[in-house]
Amino acid sequence: QVQLVESGGGLVQAGGSLRLSCVASGRTFSSYNIGWFRQAPGKEREFVAAIAWSGISTLYMDSVKGRFTISRDIAKNTVYLQMNSLKPEDTALYYCAAVPRTLSAYLGDSARSPNGYDYWGQGTQVTVSS
Questions:
Q1: 3-state secondary structure the chain
Q2: Cα 97 versus chain centre, distance
Q3: Which residues in 46-76 are b (16+ Cβ under 10 Å) and which e?
Q4: What is the dihedral of CA 71, 112, 125, 97, to 10 degrees?
């Protein structure tokens, strides 16, 4: 089991940048695939990005490719979501999530579904103004 805490959200102007952090307690990130999801009011939770337990496989939602980067710092047991060129449509509550690793070092399609994760943080708010 793992506990997740997100931070780094805030208010930023369109075109600006933010870096979200997800800090894990319990087992290290090497034991889990980690995903970032976001949810705007009245909308379903949607996939943003994910990184495999191995660190060699990543996935991104089409609308954030080239703008967002997911990474990890093993020494700090932290996964980051670097968000550049932010747009108003990026405004949402952002969550990190974890699911135990499989025998594969790579992410599959299940990594893009919120139902594919077992553990969730409380979320951090990102608001992008125009």
A1: CEEEEEECCEEEECCCCEEEEEEEEECCHHHEEEEEEEECCCCCCEEEEEECCCCCCEEECHHHCCCEEEEEEHHHCEEEEEECCCCHHHCEEEEEEEEECCCCCCCCHHHHCHHHCCEECCCEEEEEEC
A2: 7
A3: ebbbbbbbeeebebbbeebeeebbbebeeee
A4: -70
Q: Which amino acid is at 67?
A: R
Residue tagged 């089409």 (tokens): 62
130 residues of the chain, pLDDT tens digit each:
889 999 999 999 999 999 999 999 876 777 899 999 999 999 999 999 999 999 999 999 999 999 999 999 988 999 999 999 999 999 999 999 999 987 899 999 999 999 999 999 999 999 999 9
How long is the chain? 130
Q: Kindly tell me the sign of the dihedral angle through the C-alpha atoms of 106, 108, 114, 118.
A: negative
Q: Per DSSP, what are the bridge partners of residue 69?
A: 82
Confirm if 80 and 72 have CB atoms less than 8 A apart. Answer: yes
